[in-house]
Amino acid sequence: MDAGTKILVVGDVRGRFKQLFQRVETVNKKAGPFEILCCVGDFFGDDKQNEELIAYKNGFKHITVPTYILGPNQKEHEKHFEDLADGEICTNLTYLGKRGVYTLTSGVKIAYLSGVESAGAADSAKSNHEFTKSDIFAVRNSCLVSKNCSTEYRGVDVLLTSQWPYGMQENANETASKLISFLCREIKPRYHFCAINGTYFECPPFRMPKDETTQFELCTRFISLADVGNSEKAKYIYALSLKPVDKSRLLDLVQKTTNEIPCPYAGLDLCGTVDKNDTSETRQYFYDMEKKKSKGQRGYGKKRRMQELNQEKCWFCLSSPDVEKHLIITIGERFYLALAKGPINRFHVMILSTKHLPCAAQLTTEDWEELDKFKNALRKFFKTIGQVVCFTERHYKSFHLQINVLGFEEGYAWKIKHSFEDKAEEFNLQFETLPALDSPKMLPEIGPYFLAELPDDSTLITRQMNHFPLHFARDVFCSENLLNCDEKVNWKECLLEKDEETTYVSDFRKGFAPFDFTV
What pTM was computed for the model? Predict the structure, then answer.
């Protein structure tokens, strides 16, 4: 795992203390050191099994990683949590409490809620192993109290519950909690761990809809862990490395992944009913999926249909009525030049194919020759204004060939490659360096890729596209080493009024005219 706060989480222990702590010691030696071990689900088992803890209480055996547990989930286990001074059971074994937020020295915030939802309607639980709405609000308020304003809340790092949230799996809903679903939707954890169902289950990530607490759609990963030492050998221990949300780059928190599913909690109110006023696309898609779900699960095991492209609706095909023609600078036979939508600056343009082509790797010899003409013409133009040029192509989550073009002051030419390498290291990407591109045969025949043609006539390329950051090129260009405008990483934050776009196009067309071979 990369650098960060290392955390271990385990499912129901049920008195198998020796097996748990031996396994944790082994994992800690191999992949540690871990700062904390969190236990969700039932920590204690029957009285005979619990005798394994005596050796740890007496100091004959030691717990190597500080361990924190949730409270009881059944009345029979309440006796184990009575009369605990400051929650300490023995050295390195602590009861977190009924509910709250625990912040590690690194700043990682762990929200937790013990027990199961009370069956009654009262706001006070009948037993210590139950929670109610008041507990939910208390945890929510503890999470939100640190935010500075209504648009700056970034969620919490981890949520620990024993009981499952309602809506994750149909066959788990009878014993699941609608209040936990509500809590998860409100506090937006990056990871939500639970147990007591005796199964390991990890669904694809999903995004919480933005609300009055934040303008960002934050991602959650739900993980249910199996029992320690289960006969099926299902996963019961989970390791992760976290950088606190408050110290993370916003781009990392909002960057979407390829396998996300609709939020299972969209449309639920505090009582778990559907909010009739919620007409969001997420809610509509979610409830449409209800009709198609497989037995026992919300269709997570089914492959989603690949998005079919209607070329008439493609933003970039010249034959499409949706093309914003006022952005076009000049048109060739096979390619055209246009102002980028949401440009980083007034010289940020794109080379696009006139007909529908997915990537440069599929170009014919004739196509490549014209593309090369555009590139050379642009190099000459940028040189007249004292700049060098960089070309990038992302063949990933993009249906139409798009080559971004951006100029930099000549004195910055040497920084461009270093900036790509720095960002590649930050995103854990591996790039291969190629000579100048002179043929589509130099590109991957199949599969996605990202490439950058640099001013020194070298080419950086990667095929490591799983979870590739869509704004990677802009992230590089806007970095402090180059244009120093981090606020422009997201093109949607750079949209211009139509008349301003028209002015940019007119100015670029005039400057480019001496090099325009299409006229």
Answer: 0.54
